[in-house]
Amino acid sequence: MTKQFTRAMKLFRRGTVVLLIASLAYVAGPVLQVSAITTTVSTRTSDWLAAQVGSDGAVNVPGETFSATTQTMYVANGLAASGQHRDALTRAMGYIATHVNEWVVNDGSGSTVAPLGADLPERLGELILLVHTVGGDPTSFGSPATDLLARAQALYSVSVPGFYGYQEPYSAVQDQSFVVMALVASGITPPSAAVQWIADQQCVGGTNPAGALGGWQAFRVSTNNVLNDCDAPDAVNYAGADTNSTAFAVQALKAAGETAAIPSALAFLHAAQTASGQQAGGFPWFTGGDPDPNSTALAIQALIAAGESPTGGAWTFNGSSPFSILSSWQITTPGPDFGSLYAAWQPGVPSLLATFQGLWGLTLTAFPFPVLPALVEPGIPESTPTVPTFTG
């Protein structure tokens, strides 16, 4: 099995996503959100994603192995980030509404420790965020209508106190983060134990390896009710503290109003960022690895949530920022692939996973995200996105 295939499979498991923006600043609990920024680069990517949505709302990108439902969720989450192509987004949401269980329920086809037929917390969290962002009602969504919030809350402490669902070895931090963000976006205060679970997973204190300090890995197991130390980042075996889990945890904690862990998390991200070479400014999944668009986009979201600037300042190396290096993965050759992003290990080949997540970074938005403005009448322009102010 190649390293590239192993990485792709783990990317599939961590699955990812959510949504965003509005043309106005928005307050969600203690978090002041800023709207997405529309640029030439982000518009190209939005255009490509919209072109993948069929007349029935389904997405089937040639060469992709994900199911139509998964692909449609990915595209919808990307378009929700930009707020563009609302017609395509509406069609995609219509398709998702009739395939809720196909997205949410464990059918045994994926790498998960959850029982067959159980709801998957990450996917519920993602869908709740998406429905909320497009102005829908997560307590009554789909056909037949289902209460997504109730289903998510029913997963609380089913296997471990303070945790939603079942602790996946490759994504537990991400899973918990999505549910916490979904609750916050829905106006529900997450249980303190659920938020504390995320905070406790940070690699701090004790005998944690220096390279992991401040970060999060996918999941820290416990021995005799004591958390094991984190593993040092290992870019060869894709193990240890990583930038992706850290980015999700930072955003979830910020959304929940818990900011004490953020300074050390930023230090971890800064140490992981590539500082030299042609991809300076980008972020690898694991410290010492090659930068990739997904990790760079997620790191941008964490920086946005923390009030840092991903377009300059301390996060720029050799004149290259996280935003500029993310833009460099966009395909700009005229043709059907124009505007898509490619995976770092497959130059020039469109990657749906890299494209929809990359759009989160290209629009400079963190989640949870505010509700999209209502569709305007034909001929009436939508309001201009607000440019955020960064402190870092």
Main traits of this protein?
392 residues, disordered N terminus, Glycosyltransferase, Terpenoid_cyclase/PrenylTrfase, 4 strands, disordered C terminus
Account of the 3D structure:
The chain is mostly helical. It is 39% helix and 3% strand. The protein has a two-stranded antiparallel ribbon with strand order 1-2. A two-stranded antiparallel ribbon has the order 3-4. A hairpin with a 2-residue loop joins strand 1 and strand 2. The termini are far apart. The relative contact order is 0.16.
Question: Gist?
Answer:
This protein has 392 residues and is an all-alpha fold. It has helices at residues 3-14, 40-51, 68-82, 86-97, 100-104, 121-133, 148-153, 172-185, 192-200, 243-255, 262-272, 293-305, 322-327, 352-362; strands at 26-28, 31-33, 222-223, 226-227.
Strand order of the largest sheet: 1-2
Order of helices and strands: HEEHHHHHHHHEEHHHHH
Total domains: 1
Overall residue-averaged pLDDT value: 88
Helix-strand blueprint:
Blueprint: H1 3-14, E1 26-28, E2 31-33, H2 40-51, H3 68-82, H4 86-97, H5 100-104, H6 121-133, H7 148-153, H8 172-185, H9 192-200, E3 222-223, E4 226-227, H10 243-255, H11 262-272, H12 293-305, H13 322-327, H14 352-362
Antiparallel strand pairs: 1-2, 3-4
Helix pairs in contact: 2-3, 2-14, 3-4, 3-14, 6-8, 8-9, 8-10, 10-11, 10-12, 12-14
